[in-house]
Amino acid sequence: MGNSKLYKGSLSTIILKLLSETEKMYGYEITQKVKILSYGELTITEGALYPALHKLEAEGFLEVEVFKVDNRFRKYYKLTEKGATETTSKLEELNDYIKTMQALMSPSFNLQ
């Protein structure tokens, strides 16, 4: 699957889902978790991740906490209440999309 363009439309959903399962995460941690969970099939670049995080924050779905770690400041992202609601909505939407695609790709699907 590599860096397929298919997953890019799902990046916000991926981020929201990961954050729904943990209290908070920082950017690099998100990229590594996706890599692990996808068995190396998906790689999220910083160039894709941070604009998505900033957009989710601007929409009120995430809040940021800054902590000093090893003489550096690290931004941790966590879901807001609005973000938790959005996560549920996005996951339902993605599930419906997957079901539709599976029906379309089914060997019994026939256009005649």
From TrEMBL:
Cross-referenced InterPro entries: Metal_resp_DNA-bind_regulator, Tscrpt_reg_PadR_N, WH-like_DNA-bd_sf, WH_DNA-bd_sf
Ranges where the Transcription regulator PadR N-terminal domain occurs: 15-87
Gene3D superfamilies attached to this UniProt entry: Winged helix-like DNA-binding domain superfamily/Winged helix DNA-binding domain
The name this protein goes by in its record: PadR family transcriptional regulator
